[in-house]
Amino acid sequence: MQLVGQKGNKTQQGHRYAAGPRGRFGAAVAALLVAALGTACGSGQSEAPDKAAKAKAATGAEAGAAGALSAAEKARAAQQARIVAAKKWRLLKPPLQAPPAPKSKPEITTREGFEVEDQEEYPPVFTTVPTEDKVVFLTIDDGAEKDPEFLKMMKELKIPYTAFLSDYLVRDNYPYFKEMQAAGVTLNNHTLNHRYMPALSYDKQREEICGQQDTIQKEFGKRPTLFRPPYGNYNQDTLRAAKSCGIKAVPLWNAEAFTNRMDYREWDRDLHPGDIILTHFRGKEDWKGTMPDMIRQVMKTVTDKGYAVARLEDYL
């Protein structure tokens, strides 16, 4: 409270207290009254902020409790939604939830045995992301099958994945992949025409990679930073061309998923933290099943082994 009465101890213009004893007594009483008024107002001023602060603290505590309760409720609701979606899509168990993205990105280096000459000058080639998190990464190649049920399934189950697209298979239905992108999927480079890269000259390889960079940027608005060579085959010219086109990393894979099995690169035929899983946009013409069938197979394997599917870009 701002004091407004203290300026009033000035006498009104033209008024004088009597000079005698009664006048002096009146002046003293007036002074005491002013002092008392100031003390009372000062006390009120001190108590008001204290009360306001206590009220604010109480309100903050209540809001914090409400926020915590809201977060807990949201977590329960999200888990319930996963359970419902898992039942809808005939998964035996709901997918495990991935941990938050790491604050510090792991250092990505080329896997031993996958180097080319002067490898340190080129984007790293790797099959596993170094992490202690019990996560794996799902990647899907080319773009041949465009199953709308797959898009619905992945969106409802909230399973992250990364796409590597070849334009000759994608160009007949860009809107399908735009819908995928709108759901949070990153669209990356798998060349224009899916050719065997080591058989091509440097210039031809660069046309395949840079051409697809330009196409993805034109059609989807963002230039990729990840590239996967067709069939996983490459040479020094491939990596040199990829670097010149703006590619930062070359993820391969450590496991491959089909509708009825998983294949593994490692001798132990198992998953490991940070493994990249490869599969393809394929349907009944190529597989004994659909893309949702393939996802059911992947998720059964991954979940039974205690892994969650995380977003690859969160770790790169």
Task: Please explain how this structure is put together.
The chain is an alpha/beta fold. The protein contains seven helices and nine strands. Strands 2, 3, 4, 6, 7, 8 and 9 form a seven-stranded mixed beta sheet that branches. Helix 5 packs parallel to helix 6 (236-244). It is globular, with a radius of gyration of 35 Å. Mean pLDDT is 85; it is low at 1-47.
Instruction: Report how far apart the termini are.
Output: 57 Å
Q: Mean pLDDT, nearest integer?
A: 85
The number of helical elements comes to 7
How do the SSEs run, as a string of H and E?
A: HEEHEHHEHHEEEEHE
* Total strands: 9
Largest sheet: 7 strands, mixed
Kindly provide the radius of gyration, computed on alpha-carbon positions and rounded to a whole number of angstroms: 35 Å
What is the SS-derived class? alpha/beta
Helix share, percent: 40-55%
Q: How large is the share of residues in beta strands?
A: 5-15%
Secondary-structure blueprint:
Layout: H1 21-88, E1 125-126, E2 135-142, H2 148-157, E3 162-165, H3 167-170, H4 174-182, E4 186-189, H5 202-220, H6 236-244, E5 250-251, E6 255-257, E7 262-264, E8 276-280, H7 291-304, E9 308-310
Parallel strand pairs: 1-5, 2-3, 2-8, 2-9, 3-4, 6-8
Antiparallel strand pairs: 6-7
Helix pairs in contact: 5-6
Give a quick rundown of the structure.
The chain is an alpha/beta fold. Helix content is 42%, strand content 11%. The longest helix has 68 residues.
